[in-house]
Fold this sequence. Notes:
Blueprint: E1 2-4, H1 8-13, E2 21-42, E3 50-59, E4 67-77, E5 80-89, E6 104-111, E7 114-122, H2 127-131, H3 144-159, E8 177-185, E9 193-200, E10 220-229, E11 232-244, E12 251-263, E13 268-282, E14 288-305, E15 308-320, E16 330-342, E17 347-359, H4 365-368, H5 372-375, H6 381-385, E18 392-407
Antiparallel strand pairs: 1-2, 2-3, 2-4, 2-18, 4-5, 5-6, 6-7, 7-8, 8-9, 9-10, 10-11, 11-12, 12-13, 13-14, 14-15, 15-16, 16-17, 17-18
Amino acid sequence: MKRTMLALSVLAASGGVAAQSSITVFGVIDAGVSHYSTKSRSWGPTLPRQVTQSQTVLSPSGYASSRLGFRGTEDLGGGLSAGFWLEAPLSNDTGGGIANFGRRSTLSLSGPFGELRLGRDYTASFWNDAVFDPFSVNGVGTNLIAVVNSNIAASRALATGGLLNGGLSAGTDSYLRTSNAVSYFLPPGLGGFYGQVQYAFHENVKVSGTPDSASGRGRYAGARVGWASGPADVALGYGESTLVSAAPAGEKIKSLNLGASYDFGAVKVFGEWSSVRDARDNAGLFGTRSTDRYDGFVAGVNVPVGPGVIRASFARVNFKNGNGLPNSDASVDKLALGYVHNLSKRTALYATVARIGIRNGHNNPTVMGVTPLVVSLPAIFPQAAYVTTGGMEPRSAMGYDFGIRHAF
């Protein structure tokens, strides 16, 4: 990243009259060729027994999401500082410019007490999905747990009245990011312990004396606590997102995850366990309450080789239908392998290949990402590849990325 330090005279001329201030311009440009293919079983009368679908695209996020950002700090004295962070997604494959700062838009106050941060930011429950997987959440190697979480949030948000908090282009309904958030972070220097609590306002209008089951829609609450020392890092995260706030049709998505990593030098190992619950009241089923379960894990390694790194991971997510219907469960596995070759500190070449296997994919379309709007996301391999309309059940998928990433 390139840091631009503005002198006091420049700050004064532009209206920023604070000493000890800095502004950083940073970003990532990622460009690569991505290919996805899916094999599905068909039971439609006019369709073949097996259908193969494929797509080849120029993607802007095979290794890291393309972005442009501005951040700055001001020393207020006495250990206090103020800071801002504005980060926008870029579509360098089509030449799309800055449309919003949907990746992050925050203002913060920091000091010996920690940091108070206001605005749109990553959710506390998302961080483990990105930190404890060698492929993070980019390209065909994207953490399978993250894919399923994103699909659940998107499909359930659409089913309960449309997307919130930035829509599909900037995260889905308080899984990846949330708007209108107040976050508090513990200060450093606590013997390796770190933590965060977060609350996002739903900002809906409440009318006294009028029941409104959607009045809490968009509310998010979450927390993360961890410990990092030397080569070890471990963290526990929890988040709760409200889609409908009251009976007879209340619904919340609750996510609990535990992740860890350890760097042995010759190899760095990663692991994460995740449990997600989609709990809802079924007004049409005699007032009953059901909870769909998504239990998963991911394990991976980074192996340094000269100027590069070999990356590999294996993940599985099991779905259990909350209505107790027979033969209604499903599962999905994912194996990913990749290599990153660092040409410099800022520029790298990369290549990744991934394979997905699906059992009983027709039983739970949320896991498979069949919502048409979800399919349009180019950066998430399963969502780009799975199209199961017309009586088709996805059975397996393959994908690859190769490209170049430059950070500044």
